[in-house]
Amino acid sequence: MRIAMIGTGYVGLVSGACLADFGHEVTCIDKDSKKIEALKNGIMPIWEPGLESLVKANVERGRLNFTTDLAEGVQGAEAVFIAVGTPARRGDGHADLTYVFEAVRELAKVLKGPVVVVTKSTVPVGTGDRITELLAEEGAPAGTTVASNPEFLREGAAIRDFKIPDRIVVGAEDERAREVLREIYRPLFLNQAPLLFTGRRTSELIKYAANAFLAMKISFINEMANLCEAVDADVHDVARGIGLDNRIGPKFLHPGPGYGGSCFPKDTLALLQTAADAGVEQRIVKTVVEVNDDRKASMADRVAKALGGSAKGKRIAILGLAFKQNTDDMRDAPSIPLVTKLLEMGASISAYDPVAAGNARKLLPGAEFAKDAYGAAKDADALVVVTEWDEFRGLDLDRFAKSMRGKLIVDLRNVYNRADAEEAGLSYIGLGRGRID
Ligand code: UDX
């Protein structure tokens, strides 16, 4: 099947490359000519494990093409995916649909025959209805319909998530759209992935509900971690003890410095806006957002407290800046408020991240950046782990202890354990692992 993908950001590029890998003929379209040129030369705009080789292999086989020309890119396509950005709109937190509507308007003008327009971008409930109207207004060929097919990809594991999904959700209002999407995802049914057909508005809501629920699990366990610190309990045992109950499930119960990234913060806010517009309260989601904002804001105080009450004049090593491991994405990363506040408190910062340092430099101009973890830790009063990169797990704690001025680890991801740190002569503060006075 011929498929066009408008938008070669994170979602569009991963989805386009994976669909091509299933044997479909995919053209990825983007307005950014530099990006398209780079992609044609095998240079990726983002850092995602396995993406480069997947793109290159499918380009070589002639199944994956890149273009800046929309008319050429959608030529002969049966399905046109829209995977452009839907950032949070400044001021009200609503999803900004400017790029989506712009793409739809342009698409309507260049289509020569009916297609199924599929929204992959995360769009608020009712966007499919609006796109349907817009296509008609702009004179799209009769028979062009709109379906919703949200993505559930995690950065850092996106290719695996696309190819072995827990489920595929398709929201459609007509049989043709259902048929086309069934055909597109046929290779996945062979992997037994359930395909759930719903109404279009329901499908749009499922994406937000899924992200809000996962954000809720994280905020829940983060508050439990706080309680564990007060009552001398271990949050990992709590997580395991509740997670073994199938009704709860073991995933997304890892405490941390608060969730970040391009989805949870933005989508929870957009969901609240949708609910407010509909005149319906969403008290749980509202509280989840508040808990997370407070959590991120409190991490600098946690470090200052561990340093005896003040970070002034202290040198603090930061291990990890990305919002989670295996990505160079800094969007809404907990490291940003942490480092900013520590600098405001009068600390100096020496940071290290395996891949996100380039993106972080612009956001954290007051910080110094080291070439590796040991370089960051040199002469530091405290070492703060902010991202759970695997490469941090096996670091030599004795080496840290020798080169640091202070002997303190504040582990905001619980990648180390107290016994190992203490054996190396470091004092250790994790999250929710027993009493913190
Ligand atoms: C998320 C969803 O998982 C994905 O389905 C959706 O399509 C997009 O948003 P992503 O933002 O890439 O994906 O990352 P994810 O792995 O879900 O992590 C989100 C945030 O939650 C990170 O900051 C992570 O560190 C944090 N997190 C996750 C925790 O603090 N604890 C956990 O147990 C899990």
**What is the overall number of helices?**
19
- Return the CATH class of the largest domain: Alpha Beta
Terminal Cα span: 62 Å
Shape: elongated
Low-pLDDT runs of 5+ residues are: none
Task: Describe the largest sheet.
Answer: 6 strands, parallel
SS-based class: alpha/beta
Tell me the β content: 5-15%
Bound molecules: uridine-5'-diphosphate-xylopyranose
Rounded mean pLDDT is 96
Topology:
Layout: E1 2-6, H1 10-21, E2 25-29, H2 33-40, H3 51-60, E3 64-67, H4 70-74, E4 79-82, H5 98-110, E5 116-119, H6 127-137, E6 145-148, H7 158-163, E7 168-171, H8 175-184, H9 186-189, E8 195-198, H10 200-231, H11 235-243, H12 264-277, H13 283-306, E9 315-319, H14 335-344, E10 348-352, H15 357-363, E11 368-369, H16 373-377, E12 382-385, H17 390-393, H18 397-403, E13 408-411, H19 418-423, E14 427-429
Parallel strand pairs: 1-2, 1-4, 2-3, 4-5, 5-6, 7-8, 9-10, 9-12, 10-11, 12-13, 13-14
Helix pairs in contact: 1-3, 5-6, 10-12, 10-13, 12-13, 13-14
Bound molecules: uridine-5'-diphosphate-xylopyranose (UDX).
Catalytic activity: UDP-alpha-D-glucose + 2 NAD(+) + H2O = UDP-alpha-D-glucuronate + 2 NADH + 3 H(+)
EC number: 1.1.1.22
Keywords: NAD, Oxidoreductase
Which descriptors apply to this entry?
45% helix; NAD; Rossmann fold; 437 residues; UDP-glucose 6-dehydrogenase; 2 domains; 19 helices; binds uridine-5'-diphosphate-xylopyranose; EC 1.1.1.22; oxidoreductase; alpha/beta; six-stranded parallel sheet
